[in-house]
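**Backbone description:**
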Amino acid sequence: MTTSGTTLSEVLTVLDGLYPPDTAQSWDQVGLVSGDPAQPVRRIHLAVDPTLAVIEEAREAGADLLVTHHPLLLRGVHSVATTSAKGASVTALVVADLALYVAHTNADVARPGVNDALAAAAGLTATEPLTVREGQSLGLVGDLSVPMTLQAFAAMLAAALPATPVGVRVSGDADAEVRRVAVLGGAGDDAFAEVRASGADVYVTADLRHHPALEAREEARGGPPYLVDAGHWATESLWLESASERIRHELGGAAASVEVYVSTLRTDPWDFLVATSSTTSPEQRSGGPR
């Protein structure tokens, strides 16, 4: 194939430089999923998830390359028939001549990366790695410029995040003072030990399951670290704007012929919230007498 202008191969060099595939966790699947390195790229579309709706949005926008945070083919797939959502996604990508590139845990550990964007939303200006796994930093921890109540912190964070129906869930005394904050975009209930070791007053992450979260609060004996579950999509979508700016910058002169856009779709799976009674006594919250 002969092309003029910027090729996918040239864009891949930029992406691999920003988010080196060898920095991804061993279980992850990152890099080019579909596409011909020789094909021209005139428009790049960025999104958190490669859902059918996102693929259609990118196709309608005339994109040649879709860059997503989450992998499409993380686990073994034995069929790409359109009878399954993954099969339909692969078919849609191929039929539309739309390349797909994934930057997942390699974007998490990049500096700046997913967690830098979340740390900025949490009001942190100076951070250090929360922990190290497989030789790469996992999460960040830092201090707020001034202490504030857990309630005020959660409200500030919620205002900085994209809106979702479920919002931000908080576990802890609303009036407790917090200053040191640990952040880990996406699912993070396997890092409670590291959070405690960091001395964080509050931990911002997502996908907190009942038992790990309950055990973490039991270990804290009602004190810090308090928990803020800000939603998987919300905590990771902040990275997209930063990524788009870095891609434009690294493309240099080629950026004049390549448009870079961020998806407008919310791929959070929840659509609405039905609130239950908000009147709960301290005894009920602590599991005491009712």
